[in-house]
Specification:
The chain is of the alpha/beta class. It folds into 2 domains: 211 residues, Rossmann fold (3-Layer(aba) Sandwich), CATH 3.40.50; 86 residues, no CATH class. 35% of the residues lie in helices and 19% in strands. It contains 14 helices and 11 strands. It has a 7-stranded mixed beta sheet with strand order 6-7-8-3-9-10-11, with helices on both faces. It has a 4-stranded antiparallel beta sheet with strand order 2-1-4-5, with helices on one face. Helix 4 packs parallel to helix 6 and helix 6 packs parallel to helix 7. The longest helix has 18 residues. It starts with 15 loop residues before the first strand and ends with a helix. The model has no long low-confidence stretch (mean pLDDT 92). It holds the Pfam family oligo_HPY. It comes from Streptomyces fimbriatus. GO terms for molecular function: ATP binding.
Length: 336
């Protein structure tokens, strides 16, 4: 398995940045709030592809929605191109021209009554495009790999394959010439034979257009094939982050190790985590992973002298800068 072609090393100011981001949803009937995003720092630099990885329910989709301005944070801030994100209608409209969402289910993203042309042109019409609409739609379809584009103008979603529908969704994002794509499980609903084509397309768009991307996925194999950097999320927080090769060949957090162990190419033994992730309205003290941690359960944390810290002391939050960091008492004890 060969990692994706790397982008130039990230330097300078990030394009998108989150600092101290929290998103909480009120509980029912006076129950505690669910802390879906619970203190996240994350940077995405120009031309960089970051994979946000974790189990279902860990908060990664809520984090992506907060970065898009679809959910207003309870606390913390999002900045884009050096400016804080504002939540007025006009500001968000301008922001969403520069940051576009690509959803996992192209069938659900496309109106079955709209032709491909109308689906791709919709963003132009919403944002008041003043140029040649037909040329813009054709250019977006061609960049998404649907050539000749005119052949697809009058087709409907049901007349397309799953891969073609996903390319139409990507074209609908590209037509506004964004600087950043947020792709939520972009190949989860596609056959294995088509997945590689869509991932190659995203890499080509980065190379040709300088696009940045946040790819939300539960699949570390996908991250290996497309990302420059990985951020591993558990119960509302990023618990490990760093370059894709480092994270996926030498993981430091026990949760990352467990996620990797289920990949077919994994050389180690499979790690079966006990139980389900805790309720985000009742996050345990100390390290939030300790109730499922195979290292703590196996005595490794005791041997390193950090078992009490795992159960009672918060290991902190990676600062989002892109350097390799881990929120784990045991990993820090081993390094020390």
């Amino acid at each position: 398995m060969t990692p994706s072609p790397a982008a130039p090393e990230a330097t300078g100011a990030p394009l998108l940045s989150a600092r101290g981001l929290h998103v909480a949803f009120p509980g029912r009937h006076g129950a505690p709030s669910a802390r879906a995003v619970d203190g996240v720092d994350l940077d995405i630099h120009p031309g960089e592809i970051v994979a946000l990885v974790g189990e279902s329910g860990c908060g990664k989709t809520t984090l992506a929605r907060a970065l898009l301005g679809l959910v207003e944070p309870t606390a913390g801030r999002v900045t884009f191109d050096g400016r804080p994100l504002e939540y007025s209608g006009r500001s968000l409209k301008a922001y969403r021209r520069r940051v576009q969402l690509v959803l996992q289910d192209p069938s659900g993203s496309l109106n079955p009554r709209h032709t491909v042309y109308d689906a791709v042109a919709e963003g132009l019409r919403i944002h008041g495009h003043g140029g040649d609409e037909r040329a813009a739609v054709a250019g977006a379809l061609a960049r998404a790999g649907l050539r000749p584009p005119e052949r697809f103008f009058l087709r409907y979603p049901h007349e397309l394959s799953g891969g073609q529908r996903q390319r139409v969704v990507i074209a609908g994002a590209l037509v506004l010439e964004p600087e950043l794509l947020v792709a939520d499980e972009p190949v989860a609903s596609l056959d294995a034979s088509v997945r590689g084509e869509i991932l190659s397309l995203l890499l080509r768009l980065r190379a040709e257009l300088g696009l940045s991307a946040l790819v939300v996925t539960h699949d570390l194999g996908l991250a290996w094939n497309i990302a420059d950097r990985v951020a591993v999320m558990y119960l509302g927080r990023i618990v490990e982050t760093g370059a894709v090769e480092q994270i996926l060949t030498a993981p430091r957090h026990p949760y990352t190790t467990a996620l990797l162990s289920v990949l077919p190419e994994s050389p180690g033994e499979r790690v079966v985590l006990t139980g389900e992730p805790p309720d985000p309205s009742r996050i345990p003290p100390g390290c939030r992973f300790h109730v499922r941690c195979q290292v703590l359960a196996g005595g490794g944390a005791d041997a390193a002298g950090v078992a009490d810290a795992c159960r009672g002391r918060d290991p902190g939050v990676p600062d989002g800068s892109g350097t390799a960091q881990v929120a784990c008492h045991w990993a820090h004890a081993r390094k020390g």
